[in-house]
Structure formats: C-alpha cells, structure tokens
Amino acid sequence: MANVKQSLKVTALATKIALFFTLILFSACGGNTQQLAQVVDKQRDLVDIVASGKLVAVSDFNSTSYFVYKGEPMGYQYDLLRDFASYLGVKLELIAENDIDKAQAMLERGEVDLIANHLTITAARRKQYCFTKPIGQTRQMLIQRQGAVDDAGHVSSTLELAGRIVYVQQSSASEMRLRHIAEEIGEDIKIVELPDMDAEQLMELVASGEIDYAVCDENVAKVKGETLPNIDYSVPVSFMQNLAWAVRHTSPALLARINEWLDGYLPTAHHRNIRHRYFESPTQRRNMNSDYFYVTDGRVSQWDEYFKQSGQKIDWDWRLIAAIAYQESRFRVNAVSPRGASGLMQLMPATAGYFGLADDASPRLQIDAGVRYLRLLERKFAHVPAKERKKFVLASYNAGYGHVLDAVKLAQKYGRNPNVWDDNVEYFIAHKSEYANDPVVRHGSLRGVETRRYVVEIMERYQHYCNIVAL
User: Fold this and answer.
1) pTM (two decimals)
2) Which residue among 57, 139, 175, 250 is the one 20 to 30 A from 10 at the CA level?
C-alpha cells in the first residue's frame, strides 16, 4: 500500500509539472491562462479520485447495463464499476445517461471520471477520449420485423438498404457504420438520429410498427429480442468490433489502473458469471418480463402509490421512503425481525402502538405510520440544515433518537460539527461503544457501524432510484 501511495504522489507531481509547462506555452501563444487553469482543475486523474474517496462514472440504463430489479440496482456495467471502485478502495457514484453526447460532455467538463458504456472503439472516438482495453466485442445488426414487412421490404443484405430510412441512436457507432455502408454501395441511406432514444427503445418502435428499420449492437439485440418475438436481428451491418470504457486524455494514470485491473479481472470466473447473468442466463430474460423489472420511468415496487401519497404529507421524495422500506423489509408486508420489528417499515411494537398501527394493518397504513414516525424525528432535528437533516433522521430511525443525540453531543464536545453528518456526527455513531462511559452519553453503548452503513446504503439506493425512476 505504501508503494501505491508513493506511486500516486509521483504521478501527481509529474502531472503538476506537465500542467505548469502547458500553462507557460499557452500563455506564450496568447492564451487565457486563467481559463485553462479552470479547465485543468476539473480534469481529475487517479490521484484525485483516491484522495476524494469517490469514483464518478456515467453509464446508460437499459436491460443489461444498469437497471433496478425488485428494488435493487443491478446490471453488467454497474457490477463491473462496483468491483473496480472496491479495487481502488473508493465509493462509487453512478450517473445514468443514455444520450452519448451528454455523457461525453460530462466527461469533457470533468463531471465524471469515466464513461462506462459498451462503447464501440472507433478512430473518430479515439480523438475525443482514451479507450480502456476491450471488455467485450459486438457487431451492428439491422433490426426489422418478422412478417410485418412485406417481401419487397424485408432486407437480407446491406446492399438492400439503398433508399431506405434507418433509425439509430444519436452519435452512435451505428450511425457512423451506416454512413460507411452508403459510401461502399454508392447509394443513399436515409439515416435518422433520434436523441434521448436508446437501442432498446428503437427496437420497441420497430416491433410496434412505428418505424421499419433500426441498427443496434448485437449484444442488446439478443437480450431485448427475447421480449420482442416479432423482431428479426439476423442481418449484420458490420464486422465484430471491440467495446470499452472511456476516460479523458488527461487521465493517463486512471487509464493505466483500469487496464491493470481488467487484465486480472476479465479472465476470472467471477466476471464470467456476471457476463452470463446479464447476457446469457434465461433468468435475466424472465426478469425482463417481470412487473419488478424497472429500466426507464418505471416503478420501484408494487407499493409506489402509497409511498407517493405518504411522501407528499411530509414533503419527502417518495423514492427515499421506498429506499427505506427496501432496506427495512425488502418490500415484504409480513416481515418480522428477530428484535420484533414488523411490516414494510419495520416499526417496533411500542412505536407501532404509539401510531395506532394494528398487527394486521394494510400496506398503506404501514407506510403511513412509518412516514409519520419520520416526520416526528425530523421535527427533532429542525435546527439541522435541510441538506443534512435526512441523514440524522435515517440514523434515528435505525438506532433511536437518543443514540443520535449522544453522538451530536460527542461531536460538540470533541470539536466536530454537530450539524453535519458525514465524518462528524457519523464518526461518533460508528465509534459510540468507545465513548459509552463519557459523561455526555446518556443512552448507553451502540454497534454504531451498522447505523452508519444503514444511512450510506439507503442514500446510495435512493440515488439509484432517482437515476432510473421518474419522480
């Protein structure tokens, strides 16, 4: 570990030296050094990621890359990113974006550290960013209907695309490939790029008859095609192409570390199992037809309407309440914990009794009681800034208000901010057992590591729900 840290320090020094001379040269050419410095500040590399403790990535959300199933975030890209972040020893922050141009702009502006899509490696894209080692291969396939298009309209080779209207995702490799085909056959192909439309949505448009032809990756076509029986994806429009992640040209250390990780990771049985789960397993195909499979503008659970109704009463985002319910009960109405907590919101008997909740209460009443308890706790932290308050409430919901109050007093006593959760009050919750005999502690010892993890996991799940499910 010491060697790794030393290596990162050397890399950081080399980067600063390089940027120093870049600034000098830029100034000599009459450039605006202040503007360049502002851009440079946003170009994080590995040393900055490790120092911040957070890897920020953008990925597309679809049936294989990133989705929510029964309340839990899943997906091939999500699993790989989670494993890579763990390898670095940092947290993962994932942003969902299906528009390739927008994802690329995020990378250029320094809002994300990498694009974790199945990006086709092309010469044009190499000018924009650096690709990692390939994480897979695919080819572009023509999407058309089986039997829905008459014999004259059915395409069996790329030569027959002349004069036809073909729809593609905006700025995709499919668009570039079709332009090359038009040049190769010497005929015009009417290419329509659709913004904010991913390959799976294009396939659905073809299946419904709204459009006749589209082009997308074979990997996507095979998985999505299982749910669209009238789709034909048998005609290739390209040779096999490598797929990879992308980073900025100004992140060479991050690129090297990703490649180093991929060398050891891709050949493992663990990775093979992940790939099989999302691209080959019959279970995944069944999941896609489930009412609990949520990709875009879907649902989190069968209780969403109750979460929305109750959330409005206390001005909370219903997706955060859903994240709490998942953490507590996995959305099971009859769940009972070893400690006696019960129901969707896992209220203890005394708390349930306080809110008049009967043992056989309906899901709506269970959620309503849980939300009323959240409101009661929130009022106790009215003095805490709004952006911090919900973490205090979540911790109290898990451990009890008294334990969180003790942690607040410990933070005050030992020079930390009593109104900030992360690394302040959170620290004393996690270490509360060590301070059990401190005079300011009135509510005894606590395995506070569990409470800290509880808050982190709910906030992370809430972010996934925000990524994928509309408000």
Assistant:
1) 0.76
2) 57
CA 351 vs CA 21, 397, 460: distances in Å: 64, 11, 26
- Residue-wise pLDDT tens for the chain (471 aa)? 444 444 444 444 444 434 433 333 333 333 443 433 344 446 799 999 999 999 999 999 888 899 888 788 899 999 999 999 999 999 999 999 988 999 999 999 999 999 999 999 988 899 999 999 999 999 999 999 986 555 447 899 999 999 999 999 988 889 889 999 999 999 999 999 998 788 989 999 999 999 999 999 998 899 888 888 899 999 999 999 999 999 999 999 999 999 999 999 999 999 999 999 998 887 766 666 665 565 554 688 889 999 999 999 999 999 999 999 999 999 999 999 999 999 999 999 999 999 999 989 999 999 999 999 999 999 999 999 999 999 999 999 999 999 999 999 999 999 999 999 999 999 999 999 999 999 999 999 999 999 999 999 999 999 999 988 877
Helices (H), 29-156: 33-42, 46-52, 76-88, 100-109, 123-126
Q: Which CATH architecture has domain 43-136+243-286?
A: 3-Layer(aba) Sandwich (3.40)
**In degrees to the nearest 10, what's the CA dihedral of 110, 116, 118, 124?**
20
- Within 10 angstroms of residue 400's Cβ, the number of other Cβ atoms is 17
The beta-carbon contacts of 418-424 under 8 Å, at least 24 apart in sequence, are 419/383, 419/384, 419/385, 419/388, 420/388, 421/388, 421/391, 421/392, 421/395, 421/455, 422/391
304-468: CATH class: mainly alpha
Residues 6+ apart with CB under 8 A from 168: 174, 175, 178, 191, 192, 193, 194, 202, 214, 215, 216
Q: What are phi and psi of 385, to 5 degrees?
A: -55, 145
CA Rg, the chain, in Å?
26
Q: What torsion do the CA atoms of 426, 427, 430, 434 make, to the nearest 10 degrees? A: -140
Q: Is 462 exposed, middle or buried (0-12, 13-18, 19+ CB in 10 A)?
A: buried
Every domain range in the chain assigned CATH 3.40.190.10: 43-136+243-286, 140-239
Q: What are the start and end residues of each CATH 1.10.530.10 domain in the chain?
A: 304-468
CA–CA gap between residue 444 and residue 436 (Å, rounded) = 6
The encoded tokens of residue 133 equal 């080692």
**CATH architecture for the domain at 140-239:** 3-Layer(aba) Sandwich (3.40)
